[in-house]
Structures are given as C-alpha cells and as structure tokens.
Amino acid sequence: MVSVSDQTSTAAAPAAPPPRRRRPQTVRNMLWSLLPLLALVALFVVLFQPGKQPVNTIDPKPDLNYASRQLGVTVPAPSGLPAKWRATSSAMHRGSGHSLSVEIGYLSPANQYVKLVEGDPSVGTLVTTTVPGSSPQGSVTIDGVAWSRYRTPRGEIALAARRGRISAVITGSAQLDELRAMADSLR
Questions:
Q1: Residues 102-118: tens digit of each pLDDT
Q2: What are the sequence ranges of the domains in the chain?
Q3: pTM
C-alpha cells in the first residue's frame, strides 16, 4: 500500500519557467530608455524657463553731485543721451591721498556695456586703475576735446581725457561710436 506522503514525494515537481532572455545592452537600447527622461527635462525647461530679466536702472546724479561737492569742481554728467541709454550701476572710489573717482556703468542702445570713470587723479593714473595693461592707440577728437585712445587687454577700446580738473575714462564692450556718444554727452 502506498502512503499519501510517498505519493507527494515521488510526484514530479512542476518545471521551473525557463529564464528570461535579456536583451543585449546596446547603445541604441540605452538611448531608447533615456528618451522619456529627456522628454521630461525638455518639458520642464520649456514650462519653467524664466522670462527675460529686466535691467535694473539707477540714477547716478547723487554720486556725481557728491563727487562734485567733495572735489570742489563740477564733475561732468552725461546729458542728452537717447532714452535707450540706461545707467545700471554707480560707485565711488577713494584712491591714495584724497583722490576720488566715480564709476558709472551704462547699457548702451546696442545692449553693450559702457563704463564711465571720472575723478581728480591724473589721466594716466585713472587709465592704469580703470583698464590696467592698456596700450595707447592714438587719439580721437570729440566735440573739440582730444581723447587718448587705448586698447585694453580684453581687446576693448578705452578713451581718456582731462577736462579741466577732472579726468575721464570711457571703456567697455561698446563700439567706438557709442563710446564717442558718451564722451560727447559729458557736460
């Protein structure tokens, strides 16, 4: 007589399913698996991309007025520039001794940077501190004033002149015509 326990032990166990075949790992398969992730990233960038940031503008007159009071002479201010010129920064700098200069950053109509630095140091000192390593490139006459022209180490143009007791340097990524417009506007 066969017992129940003998029947279960002698009965064949169900066969295990055959192992799954893995697809070969190829670059093509890896790219297909990354495609949904890249689509999500692209969608995120499109939906949450910040808009064009507005340019902050400032009024440089308080710094120019302060420099004029401290130096006892009127520091020329840009006047008559088209509305597309925007002052974006202004700072005062004390040099050795009692020298003082004011630095104003502008965004030109062509969206290029123009830096105007004015103060009582000599033109040579102001050029050395504003655009160190610049090399002379001749001169240009603007509104009857001879401006020395320099080439900065970054390849930009710098204009420098002495106007009475005040030296001025104009430089930046702007082209010569915009630098000339800034120089011509100083009153």
A1: 999 999 999 999 999 99
A2: 61-185
A3: 0.74
